[in-house]
Write a structure and sequence with these properties.
201 residues; alpha+beta; two-stranded antiparallel ribbon; 9 strands; 30% helix
Length: 201
């Protein structure tokens, strides 16, 4: 993680109200996602500093009662893809992954749009997820070999998504920063966001 970045951030997780209540009131852990198309690989997903985007996502998922959980997240050892050095780490993992797939005669996954239209957002990130998983496996192997590596606690990335905010703009309406929390100890506390457009109860 960049030495110039602060460690603590606020993240927001879209979910059903029943899940939000269990997390905030009963201390239930937020489920770690491990789907083959997850944007940042395995982890518990949060929108950084954007509860409204988390609510939009919960509504898009068509939960019975869309809700949002806020969380204080300590990024700790973070693969921060807004940082040039960390982007280079991911590029290394990509080349290593491609080399292994090609030598093994295995297919290379592709990022896709559910509709199959390449002109739309490729929200199914099969390739990216495979590269993140490969990177984490490389690090796990080096840790087991005693080479002094540390596993990443969190992964942070910025994504351009959606339509331009107005004609001719290169700013897009759904652009966001996401965090995948791999180490649940990084979630220091959860809360219902105050002054939010929906009531948690």
């Amino acid at each position: 993680m960049s030495q110039l970045a602060t460690s603590f951030v606020l993240g927001y997780h879209g979910c059903d109200k029943s899940v939000a209540k269990k997390a905030v009131l009963d201390g239930a852990e937020i489920i770690q996602s491990d789907r083959d198309y997850d944007w940042l690989g395995p982890g518990a997903y949060f929108w950084e500093a954007d509860p409204l985007r988390a609510l939009e996502w919960a509504r898009w998922k068509d939960y019975n009662e869309p809700s949002v959980i806020g969380a204080v997240i300590d990024l700790k050892h973070c693969l921060d893809l807004t940082n040039r050095e960390d982007v280079e780490v991911l590029q290394y993992a990509y080349h290593s992954f491609i080399d292994i797939q090609e030598k093994s005669g295995l297919p290379i996954p592709e990022n896709k749009n559910p509709s199959g239209d390449n002109n739309e957002d490729r929200v199914l990130r099969y390739l990216d997820c495979a590269v993140f998983r490969h990177l984490h496996k490389i690090i796990e192997m080096r840790i087991k070999s005693g080479l002094g590596f540390d596993a990443y606690d969190t992964v942070r990335g910025m994504f351009v998504e959606g339509d331009p905010v107005y004609e001719g703009s290169d700013i897009y309406e759904k652009s966001h920063v996401q965090i995948a929390v791999r180490n649940v100890q990084c979630i220091k506390g959860v809360f219902f966001p105050p002054d939010f457009p929906i009531e948690p109860f």
